[in-house]
Please model this.
Amino acid sequence: MNKLLVLGGGTAGTMVVNKLRKKLKKTEWLITLIDKDNRHIYQPGLLLMPFGVYKAEELVKERDHFFPAGIEYITGDVSVIRPDASEVILEDGRIFKYDQLVIATGTTPRPDQTPGLDDEAIWHKSAFDFYTLEGSVALRDALAKWPGGRMVVHITEMPIKCPVAPLEFAFLADAYFTEKKMRDKVEIIYVTPLEGAFTKPACSRALGAMLVDRKIALEPDFMIERVDVESKTLISMDEREIPFDLLVTVPLNMGADFIGKSGLGDDLNYVPVDKQNFLSKKYPNIFALGDASDIPASKAGSVAHFAIDLFAENFVEYVQGREMKHNFDGHANCFIESGNGKGLLIDFNYTTEPLPGMFPIPVIGPMPLLKESRLNHMGKLAFRWIYWNLLLKGRWIPIPALMSMKGKRAAVVVEGEKVNAGH
Amino acid sequence: MPVIEVAGKQVQVNEEGFLTVYEEWSEEIALALAKQIEIDMTDEHWKIIKFLREDYKTQKETATSRRVQTVGGVPVKEQFVLFPKKPAKKMAYIAGLPKPKGCV
Model:
């Protein structure tokens, strides 16, 4: 009996076991999934939670509700992977041997990596993350009674999970305070280590203009050194200071510590893999999927979804000794909430920037790309149902795994962004 | 891709002026590139540039600021002093390497 071991039962791990249980014969492959708990969080909902859109219980379900029949599910904390012995050791001493290993343990916000940030005088009191259920709920409660002042929306370092989320947060905060008739009492500052609002030039221009429209100040190229707890101030490596009354930060994102401990990670504990098929660069029987890998694509559920459609085909070819033919192109497709019931939709890959156009059907749409519309916001709300009922279980969704240029207008970005390194 | 002349040599660059061919780089070219962005090269600057060149050979990608700190041994804070405002980008530019990833 061959053994496939999957570490992590989040978005990626759950899709992997659903896809592969259908493709691998039960008489030939035993599939085991290990996770530390049985709590699956609908992460896109964490962005809207602080504005009172959801209740906490609407975003949490049991992980094993989404696993197919015929897999073994183990709860436990991984201590270390021993790749040379093809085994995984848990903290409680249990040992799991594998023939093939899939690492899908994602990425985690680490406030402990920035001096001062996780100090108990400010953490989840005046400084919040919204990438954990605890942080997002604490932020909701703080916002509800906040009298106004200076709100700083901050990114520590790239890469981060769902890279547009902090921008969306700033847009939604603007709409939220406007709705509460207190926008004039709130100053919003967007602080980023990037040189503009976003990474990709065409997108950065469009989103940067949206910050200006909303009177949100932009502080680019800000690499944080520490937080001064007493004065509630962010201090950068080049000694710029940004005081805050309320900080909404995206802490440093890192892969699981056991990946580093096992000698499988880069500087941030992400597993270096071939970006087209997710096979470890060091070991021929280890793959890393979803946010846990170092592929130069957005750390986002849509990327994991497209990637795993192709991975499932590749994996079957690979274990049969055939060449993996389903190369991934880095396809991402993201709804961006812009506030007031509207949203944008962007679609891009490793080599092509987000372009304007219509999606998913050329010209007709119905969803416009890189442009605000009410329908895109509805798409984002509808996605929660799609996520729980179709996506995790590996059912068909009408968006192809590889990006298509149909319906997009490429001419708009031909001029490109010419930024001199000296500026 | 455009071709420009730097320090008397023809080199290929991308639309942002970063060298695109690893082998076309030389120390003379690095000095000229540094001058263009108003960096006075000292031994401390060279230590980082040489680390980036060597590291690229094995990693096939440009080291991030974090890696220059953890593997190259130069703290990020020091990088900001040597290459003000945008150290990662400026170091890569002078070293004739692509901008480091992390921007997706």
